[in-house]
Amino acid sequence: MKILIIEDEAELRETIQKSLLKEKYTVETAHDFTSASDKITMYNYDCILLDIMLPNGNGLDLLKHLKQLGKSENVIIISAKNALDDKLKGLALGADDYLTKPFHIAELTARITAVLRRKYFNGKSEVQLGNCTINIQERTLKVNQHDVHLNRKEFDILNYFSLNKNRLITKSALAEYVWGDHIDQADNFDFIYYQIKNLRKKLEDSNAEMAIETVYGIGYKLIEK
């Protein structure tokens, strides 16, 4: 899952980022209105943590911009402003939740988990594909009730495919989603090929009733057998 933190306070931004990285999320950050606007225009996110008061602009305008782009990212406002009017404005513009500073990181993590469940899994933690059970919260894969060990990137890739079953996923979209900001440092997409190759072998060896098909020259597609 990919999260964008829009927060100008460096210490808080770094604290949230470190905590979410420990939870195995892919995390990107923006420290002001301009950089945040660029990111939400160019990329897609599963959840956005949004401060209202930002250098060069207002977070509520970013919510308006998301709406204009037709994007449905889960947005949790994190702001020191606790006036009812601000909450109502944010929710009316499409925010999914509102957390007033100061807050415990554990509560923020729980809020993120809750909005992601509502969006992708109808409030559940598991996805069932054939004889495969993917537990999003525990980050586990079971085939016929037997555990299949996946490394972090393999699980991230499988999770992304499960959210886009039967849809063509381009190599660039997959790389940007799983590797986030670090993708700019890559010279090619060979690293995706090797992760996909390893993931395929694990699915085949466990007799999983799903497979990753290659659409040559374009990308991949997850199908149920």
TrEMBL record:
Pfam families: Response_reg (PF00072), Trans_reg_C (PF00486)
Domain OmpR/PhoB-type: 124-224
One term of GO molecular function: phosphorelay response regulator activity
SMART domains: REC (SM00448), Trans_reg_C (SM00862)
GO biological process: regulation of DNA-templated transcription
UniProt domain Response regulatory: residue ranges: 2-116
Residue ranges flagged as DNA-binding region: 124-224
Cellular component, GO, one term: cytosol
InterPro entries according to UniProt: CheY-like_superfamily (IPR011006), OmpR/PhoB-type_DNA-bd (IPR001867), Sig_transdc_resp-reg_receiver (IPR001789), WalR-like (IPR039420), WH-like_DNA-bd_sf (IPR036388)
Keywords: DNA-binding, Phosphoprotein, Transcription, Transcription regulation, Two-component regulatory system
Keyword Transferase: no
Family matches, as SUPFAM superfamilies: CheY-like (SSF52172)
4-aspartylphosphate modified-residue sites: 51
Presence of the UniProt keyword Transmembrane in the record: no
PANTHER family, per database record: REGULATOR OF RPOS
Protein name, per record: DNA-binding response OmpR family regulator
Species of the source: Formosa algae
